[in-house]
Amino acid sequence: MATAGAIGGAKPVDSGRSTNPWLVAVVVALAVFMEVLDTTIANVALRYISGGLAISSDEASWVVTTYLVSNAVALIASSFIAQRYGRKRFYLVCLALFTVASILCGLAWNLPSLLIFRMIQGFAGGGMVPVSQSILTDSFPPEKRGQAFAVFGIAVVVAPVVGPTLGGYISDNFSWHWCFLINGPVGAFAFALVYFLVQEPEALRRKREEMRRKGIRFDVTGFLLVATFLGALELVLDRGQVEDWFDSTFIIVATAICVVALLASIPWLLTARNPAVDIRLLATRQFGSCVVVMLAIGAILIATTQFVPQVLQENYGYTATWAGMALSPGGLVTMVMMFVAGRLTSKIQPKYLIAIGAGIIAFSMYDMTRVNPDLNFGFFVWSRLYLGLGLPLIFIPIIAASYDGLRPDQIDQASALINAARNTGGSIGVSVASNVLADREQWHQSRLVEHIVPSDPTYVETMRNLQHFFAERGSTMADAQNQAMRLIGEQVRMQASYLAYIDVFYVLAIISACAIPLALILRNIALKSGGGGGMH
């Protein structure tokens, strides 16, 4: 995603650098790719993690959601810290901390230690994305920024798709620990390249000195209120199903904390001198609608990246590697479409592209509702290809739409909010899909069991045939009856699972469809040519 600094045709900041800007773009994209990759690389390894740490699959899912929440929280503070203490310095600290935390994740000895290290990893990674966008803005003239941000967009959109494939291969052939340890050498390499190639623009140094002279401080109170709201919200969504929702004191307390933090943050952020979050931006039709769309798309991207490999492993018996490979062709389509979308944004109003993209994604989710035991690998590949077509039509145009009309001093804040919306949406999407899956699986199983009664002719006939089948193979009548009951019970469980996944994909399709009217209420923007791809 692009920062708004790439808008308006302003000249890039003179950093006094002779480094090839495309080399800078590749270096920055490498670091961001590594950070975004970690949102999904653990998804297909969750079964290995739960087995290795002796925890339930539900507890293992916290490995994903903890990272997403801490990442979103860090995004809120990243722009101020980068301005106040130096962009390059902050970026290098984040990259180093992310690399160290990744290694510690790979060495984690139990669930609490893994979650703590994932939280640190998420905080460090959250500071890298918006700063990367600012670095690209300073490195390229306006007419080249669209192409530069297409490279950046590939890292942001393709990394979550590559994650399951890479994580699956590593988990199947080595160990889940290497899903995190692999970041060690990559992070060290990226750190060295950033240190030598990226320079701090002189204008930013002057701005930093000016902030020091004026005594501008970070809004710690506002930040803590927003972080508490996001953290409590995640607890409610993630633990609600397990704790039986509001029959649980824990959920009631977490909800109360969430609501109080939200209500307290609004007046504070409206009156603070230098608020951690400019909520007035969220109240505008243009930017607010874009944030909601990004929440929805983040939910679709992350939720499907977790639940498609999950259904392939649990219901179809795929290995983690093959479950991840089902997503890979969609990633290749996304890569190509990023550049196509960049070109289209300079010729077609972003709101129409966003609406088309949301429609394609809704169709992709609706297509997944056809899931049944007879499907083959190709079905999941094609469904992911549709998703790969739609995502770039949202991710690229939404930048041009969301930053249109903003003042220069709102740029960094807007960039942080858009990226935070993507991650927060991903976290909410995983939690909502998990709850829908668990609740609807119980419901379907209850309905199916109602037919397993002696008065049901189909059940009686099925039991008779199965008993006869097992008896012919040497089982006693008592054993044959038990084997038949177990087989019927397993079939009921599997059918309930398929029906629950269908409900999950219906919900995701509805979420995608809701983004279409939101996109159409966006105002038209001034289109610019020159290959900017809407990133001007």
UniProtKB/TrEMBL annotation:
Swiss-Prot/TrEMBL keywords: Cell membrane, Membrane, Transmembrane, Transmembrane helix, Transport
Single Gene Ontology MF annotation: transmembrane transporter activity
Keyword Secreted: no
UniProt membrane topology term: Multi-pass membrane protein
Major site of localization recorded for this protein: membrane
Sequence intervals crossing the membrane: 21-42, 62-82, 89-109, 115-136, 148-169, 175-198, 218-237, 249-270, 290-308, 320-340, 352-369, 381-403, 498-522
Key word Transferase present: no
InterPro entries given in the database record: EmrB-like (IPR004638), MFS (IPR011701), MFS_dom (IPR020846), MFS_trans_sf (IPR036259)
GO cellular component term of the entry, any: plasma membrane
Subcellular location: Cell membrane
Major facilitator superfamily (MFS) profile domain residues: 24-527
Matching CDD domains: MFS_LmrB_MDR_like
Gene3D superfamilies reported for this sequence: MFS general substrate transporter like domains, Multidrug resistance protein D
Name by which UniProt lists this protein: MFS transporter, DHA2 family, multidrug resistance protein
Organism classification: Bacteria, Pseudomonadati, Pseudomonadota, Alphaproteobacteria, Hyphomicrobiales
